[in-house]
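Readers outside the structure-tokenisation community will struggle with the description of the input data as it stands. For illustration, here is how one protein appears when written out as sequence plus structure tokens:
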Amino acid sequence: MESLTGYSAFVLAAEQHSYVAAGRILGISSSAVAKSISRLEAGLGVRLLSRTTRSVGLTDEGAIFYERCKRILDDIRDAEATVSQSRERPKGRLRVSVPHIVGRHLLLPHLATFTQRFPEIELDINFEDRVVDIVAEGLDVAVRSGELTDTRLIARSIGKQHFVVCGSATYFNHYNRPETPTELGRHICIHFKYPSSGRLAPWSFRPPYGDLRLPESMIFNNTDAGLYASIDGIGLAHLPVYVARPAIEAGVLKPVLADFMLPFGSLSLVWPSNRQLSPKVRAFVDFAIERLQANSKAFLPIEAR
């Protein structure tokens, strides 16, 4: 058992490049991580990790040992998951990463029901817009947009992301409704900026309007801010349908250019590709798919009016 602790500490330290981060995931101190790895190295008679004041890296021997240890630990987790499948109530801490806007508008309304259904699952949810490394950061599941390129991950689709350009009646009292995307050059455009890169999100028009240079009248790194700014009559915002639809159905916002919009990628739930899905991850994935896909309007385009 002590060796298994050393293996876990070693694998996490290698993936995190940090004793502190590995200890945080394991729930122990960084000094305890260091001692476990030192005992493991002493027993093997080789140096597994090279340490500097800023980072931790694998030695040549450590890289070989890491691959074997990773497979061993995955096999143990698979065995535990297989046995646990017979448990009526999944349990344990579940670490989830979800973009702010998806968490706020799609996931958060269902969490009370999830906790009632699975009271022994402890949710640890990060609302963050950066693209996280699920494996390296020790996460169980995440919501991702776009195509999945990481072969270490498995994905289940939630639905296509549709967007809509919209403004308030107050705004249209001062500006004519645009009939084509090229007319947006005479409008106040509210943009979303990706917090991780600082790039502006493109507006999802079909060709030949996909690369239009739009006025950068106002920029937010938060989609809700763009929603409220458009409701206040400041300008036109390019918003996910699941964010804008309630305001559109309430008559607070008016959609424009609906015939020119294209889907902008898709939303998926992703998790590390262990051979056996753990009960707590399966419970969360099945629940989220069930609840989010039941909200079919969230993943349908706004019709032209």
